[in-house]
Amino acid sequence: MPGDPTSSGYLDPLRLAFRDQVGAVMEKAIFPSFFHGKCQDPVTGVNPPGCPNPDCPVVCGTPGSMVHFYSKLRYIAYNTTWHLMHELARPGTPTFNEIQNNVEVIRNGARRRRLSLDPRGESSLPTNPGFSGGLISRAISTRDNYVKDSLARIFQDIRSILEKICGGVGDGTTNGLPYCSWEEIMKDYILTFP
After folding, report:
1. Within a domain: residue 41?
2. Tell me: the pLDDT tens digits for 28-82?
3. Measured between alpha carbons, how far is 48 from 57 in angstroms, rounded to an integer?
4. Which are the contacts of 22, defined by CB distance < 8 A and separation ≥ 6?
5. 164 domain residue, yes or no
6. Which is nearest to 14 in space by CA: 108, 105, 107, 100?
7. Residue 40 forms part of a structural domain
């Protein structure tokens, strides 16, 4: 049906909301939550050896400090990513509701297509003139909750999915998350800043 999301587009609301918010959220998680200020000794005004670049052993806001504490930076990025995704995909949020709607549109379209293939259509369903419809409304409510409940279960697993993708857990272990590190490339990039 025109305008229906494709299966690859079900999660577009999550992808777009994440893209729109991740910069500000990540910046706040990195600066000033962990990395902050200058490396200079406040009394002497002298930078410690290796500061500000290329490898500063003082937690501060310089590129050298970020390189030195890269494993911590990696975990800040990892944990911030999963927390943001978890918040965006909670049941009842606008993002969750859009995804649920996308799934229901496709699901209902598939149901309509199946019924249209039956030459008798919906009129072939048995009817009872004295039937109040309560059973049908409970069935519809259960069906509607099925999509919501299924999505909620899937999104509860965001952290374990990220752990599998990244090859570790977000507990700060040195050299953890080996598939989500990009350490060499990121360190080179970080050191391009003054």
Report:
1. yes
2. 999 988 998 888 888 888 888 888 888 888 899 889 999 999 989 999 999 999 9
3. 8
4. 80, 81, 84
5. yes
6. 100
7. yes
> Given the structure tokens 């490339």, which residue do they identify?
185
* The pLDDT value given to residue 1: 43
Nearest to 63 by CA among 28, 27, 38: 38
Q: How many residues does the chain have?
A: 194
Residue at token pair 């909670």: 90
| pTM for the full predicted model | 0.74
Write out the residue range of the structural domain in which residue 73 sits.
10-119+134-190
* 39: its two tokens: 């490396």
SS3 62: coil
Contact 50/38 with Cβ under 8 angstroms? no
Give the Cα separation of 20 and 66 in Å (integer).
Answer: 24
Domain count, the chain: 1
Cα 58 versus chain centre, distance: 31
Q: Is residue 128 part of a domain?
A: no
The ranges of the chain with pLDDT < 50 are 1-2
Per DSSP, helices labelled H in the chain are 12-30, 63-68, 70-88, 94-117, 134-156, 158-166, 183-190
- 3-class secondary structure for 64-105? HHHHHCHHHHHHHHHHHHHHHHHHHCCCCCHHHHHHHHHHHH
